[in-house]
Amino acid sequence: MTPAIELRNVTKVYRRFGGRQFATLKSALLQRSILRDLSPTETFPAVRELSFAVAPGVTYGVIGRNGSGKSTALKLVAGITKPTSGTVHVQGRVSALIELGAGFHPEISGRENVFINGIMLGLSKREVARRFDEIVEFAELKDFIDAPVKTYSSGMYMRLGFAVAIHVNPDVLLVDEVLAVGDEGFTHKCLDKFAEFRRRGKTVLLVTHSLAVVERFCDEALWIDGGRAKAHGDPRRVVDAYLTSVEESEGQMLATATARAVAAASGPSAEPPPAATAAEAGPDGETGTPPSPEEPRDMFQAAEGRWGSREVEITEVALLDRAGQPGFVFHSGGPMAVRVRVRAHAPTSDFVFGVSLFNADGVCCYGTNTWLEEMEPEELSGDAEVLFAIDSLDLVEGTYKVDVAVHKRDGFPYDYHRLLYTFRTRSRTRDIGIYRPRHHWTFSPGVRFKPTA
Amino acid sequence: MFANLRQLVRYRGLIQSLVARDLKARYRGSVLGFVWSFINPLLLLAIYSFIFTTIMPNRVEGAQPYALFMLCGILPWTWFSSSLTEAAGSLISGGNLIKKVLFPAEVLPIVSVLANLMHFFLALPIVVVFLVIYQHPPDAVDLVWLPAVILVQLVFTIGLALLLAALAVHFRDIRDVLANLLTLWFFSTPIIYPWFQPELQPYVHLFNLNPFTHLAVSYQELLFFPGPFGHWKWLVALGGVSVLVFLAGYWLFDRLRDSFAEAV
């Protein structure tokens, strides 16, 4: 069977007319450089050596970061731009939902715009007339169809654009991130329409950032990065590979941010912030005991910083993943460990190690220390390592910060690192809150759910 | 190139509806609506008539009544100049379409020319009214030439429109240059003065090089001057030139086509 869409070694090089930004016809004529100026000075490959084929009837998802070349690939398939090299082959009538209502003229009525837009997308006048009622009904604009389009809200505008494009009845439908055009109800209608397309054996090429849509609706997926195909095939596998790579780059970003925060806090002027004096600066924890000097007066005092006498110094803090490797992105429900390396400049028998976790809003999610957990200090000398291991990081997805401290039993700080370490929790579930208790659902036989794909 | 030209025929439905949209949208919201198609040339005519019959009267034999004479040249000129002005900006203002919808871009400048042709047709009744007022009936036999003149002008204008639209994408200043160039062109064409003006005769060869001279003269001969249409040889020659201009314009447009989606 011949594929509905086939790209072979397609490269698209965009020109950046960098050199002649201010060149005008006059200067071009004066310098006799029209031809030279029309040739690019700098080029940018948006798509490189891209090859993929989509069989008829397949819903194909394309994912990737911003600027990875997804939309360019879609425009190449649509024929709006031509490849610099390689071949693009598409079988059948194509409709591209790239920008909805791109051809609408604001001054004339919705009705006239439907006709012109439909003709622009390749229908004949009679075909538009036959589908007109269906289009208007789909767009939910029966009462406004004769009003000028400039009076429409942006949602109405998008809905009408979508309705026209989808009723062109193409063999190949190209969709670029347009699912977010309407309210919930309309989005469902769009997804239903895609499902109907699928049932009728039409080919759909979907460019989206919504990984859930790719996993639920697509038969195959392609991940593009830097204009090249990174992975394609089973949507779940491709999405996983993509997520892993996103985590890696996120981890790198968090690593540099953390290094910067630590360096800034450890500078020569690392005084305790005025609101958090030595007496207040203790580990955070709701112990239920009467207020002691160890309890901060204000739990939400979330200014990052570092202070303390440094008699015992924290030399390194690392967040470790399952394999014991330092990382910055952890999976909800998976293990995480905080490794603290300290150096006691003189042996001491009065020391407490504390760790607490804050979410992005500055709310303390959990805090504890060795004193609260009734560990009597005996001796700390020289270099030492402390490992605070969490077996199951039961936090919802989000960014969290870590406090690490060494102090005396009365709260006098040796070295207090406040909110200097950042990590991200990833989760497949979009649940809300802070803490995810271990849980499961059970239902009596009267309750049934569709089997998950 | 010729395959693309053939494809253009398939898009005639689109061109038709876009021209209709252009006409509807232009006067939507204005009180006088289509009446402006009459008022605009009339006002222009009133100004020129006042200048050339009262302030600096032109008393050349044979070109009287002067207002009617000027009208015959001004209307086609208005079609020509507004077409080029609009066409030069058509790809830039229609950039959204070129980038997001798959359709032949040459539709846009062609629509500019055709929409202005419609305005030209709408203004033609003014000529009829003036012919009646001045009791200056044109030669009925001559009038069969009129469609030919319009056709030549159409081909010529579309050719230039395609050329300008394609170049204006890369050189935005074309639009400003064009405005001045059109003013110069207007005054170097025998529209507000007759081509047989004695002072003109030393430069007659230069005037003959101006394509619009022959269009203006043709309109004036057909609508204003009595006697057989003596300028037809020039018109036929210009017809040939127009086809060449059209092919050249289309060729350039076709060559630059792929750059539009990136440059607008």
Report on this structure:
The complex is a heterodimer of chains A (453) and B (264). Chain A is α/β, with parallel strands linked by helices and 453 residues long. Chain A has 2 domains: 5-244, Rossmann fold (3-Layer(aba) Sandwich); 254-283 and 300-426, abc- transporter (atp binding component) like domain (Coagulation Factor XIII, Chain A, domain 1, Distorted Sandwich), CATH 2.70.50. Chain A is 25% helix and 31% strand. Chain A has a 6-stranded mixed beta sheet, sandwiched between helices. In chain A, helix 4 (110-120) crosses helix 5 (125-139) and helix 4 (110-120) packs across helix 6. The mean pLDDT of chain B is 87. Chain B has 264 residues and is mainly alpha-helical. Chain B has 11 helices and no strands. The radius of gyration of chain B is 19 Å and the shape is globular. Classes of the chains: A alpha/beta (453), B mainly alpha (264).
Tally of contiguous helical segments of chain A: 9
Q: What count of domains describes the coordinates of chain A? A: 2
Biggest sheet details of chain B = none
Summed over residues and divided by their number, the pLDDT of chain B gives a mean of: 87
**What CATH architecture of the largest domain in chain A do you see?**
3-Layer(aba) Sandwich
Order of helices and strands of chain A, N to C?
EHHEEHEEHHHEHEHEEHEEEEEEEEE
Measured by DSSP, the beta-strand proportion of chain B falls in under 5%
Poorly predicted segments of chain A = 269-300
DSSP, total strands of chain B = 0
Class by alpha and beta content of chain A: alpha/beta
pLDDT < 50 stretches of chain B: none
Number of domains of chain B: 1
What is the strand arrangement across the widest sheet of chain A?
5-6-7-3-8-9
Overall 3D geometry of chain B?
Answer: globular
How helical, in percent, are the residues of chain B?
over 70%
Portion of residues in beta strands of chain A equals: 25-35%
Write down the overall geometry of chain A: elongated
In whole angstroms, the N-to-C terminal distance of chain A is 27 Å
